[in-house]
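Reviewer 2 asked us to include a model.

Predict the structure of this chain.
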Amino acid sequence: MADPTAPFDDFLPEALQFRSPAPLADIGANLTHASFDRDFDAVLGRARAANVTTLIVTGTDLAHAEQAVELARRVTGLYATAGVHPHDASGWDSALASAMRELHRLPEVVAVGECGLDFNRNFSTPAEQERAFEAQLGLAAESGKPLFLHERDAGRRMNEMLRAWRDDIVDAVIHCFTADRETLFSYLDMDLHIGLTGWICDERRGHHLRELVGEIPLERMMVETDSPYLLPRNLPAKLKGRRNEPSLLPWIVREIAHWRGDDDATLARATHDTARAFFRLPAGDGAINPGHAQQKES
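Predicted model (structure tokens):
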């Protein structure tokens, strides 16, 4: 976990300054996390320097979704999602459903979520999670926007619920995929997309992903940092505070490309194009503008 009060480097050591050979889209960045409050502009500047040109800012509850929308309004190249994370599913009610429906009507919101099922921690009961998830599946069908999904130790039930709705939802991505081969193919069989993070860089728990990434078609793959979480463990230098950030996405791409037998540029270009198409992003939108206080052009 990233501690917002912990000391951290407000710059990247030279050894970590790695520019992607092709533009990248980070489809899962928790930029509303308090750890980014102190150096938000610098974080965006480093992302741009690393050729990370598109950021999808994750909204995991009403407050953070509203903050994500505000960032997307202020910064070119940023977009928002809006949903209720399974950890917070116990708070789902009709008022929250109405508020989410309104957010999904906004052009800045490009996906419904982060939502789904997490039977690993069960901060909300499985029944509460399924109730909130079912409702958000309905909101995705209603809005016509894709789903940004969270799943931990719930692959079978997630599969059952998604299959029941698959004809009604346009697209869905399994964010931060960490499951097994059977679960992967159950998602691919439903024509879902797969989001990969720095989990694959972790020699302690990412070995199985190294064997699976070659099975994921490039047109179904997207990449993400899940920052400030999941700092990649393949970095050649230590980072004080262990806060992940979008500028480190090229290191994740390099790891995935290595295990697939691809080159960095091919993987970067393909995942970028897949993300732009998946989230239906306007072709004319520019890259990240580090001056976050500047308004987008109307």
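DSSP finds nine helices and eight strands in the chain. Strands lie at 24-29, 52-57, 78-82, 109-118, 147-152, 172-174, 193-196, 221-223. We have added this to the supplementary material.
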